[in-house]
Backbone:
């Protein structure tokens, strides 16, 4: 399978609405790379007060979207018993750059890549685009931990 819809992402991640930000994952290369889509809408919860009259997707939620896409990529590539009853936590965010504001209504495309893994710790990098224009990029690390 090279494409996951929203329900398949829900089956992989512990995130739920309104914090489940990614809508689709495709171009999946097992435990290596994928592209995620975040549909940034004018009625998205995060733009209601950020900012009235001039809505913008907060940069921290772009980073969260990167993290969710990476977690879905990783969970999709692992045996279910490895990620079942687990959570993925961001450990660090490095080199995050925000080049242009992400304005609704748009489709934010996240190209993510797993750089390396060591046990339960993974390092990733990603680029965010709207209509082919780079909006942001970052590197981050995450870990898989037991629930509770």
Residues:
């Amino acid at each position: 399978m090279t494409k996951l819809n929203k329900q398949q992402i829900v089956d992989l991640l512990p995130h739920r609405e309104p914090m489940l930000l990614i809508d689709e994952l495709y171009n999946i290369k097992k435990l290596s790379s994928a592209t995620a889509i975040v549909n940034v809408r004018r009625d998205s919860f995060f733009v209601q007060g950020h900012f009235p009259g001039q809505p913008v997707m907060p940069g921290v939620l772009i980073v969260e979207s990167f993290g969710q896409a990476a977690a879905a990529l990783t969970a999709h590539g692992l045996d279910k018993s490895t990620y079942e009853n687990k959570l993925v936590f961001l450990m660090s965010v490095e080199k995050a750059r925000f080049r242009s504001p992400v304005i609704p209504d748009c489709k934010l495309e996240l190209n993510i890549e797993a750089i390396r893994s060591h046990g339960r710790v993974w390092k990733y990098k990603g680029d965010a685009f709207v209509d082919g224009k780079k909006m942001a990029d970052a590197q981050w690390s995450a870990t898989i931990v037991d629930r509770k």
The mean pLDDT is 95. The chain has three helices and seven strands.
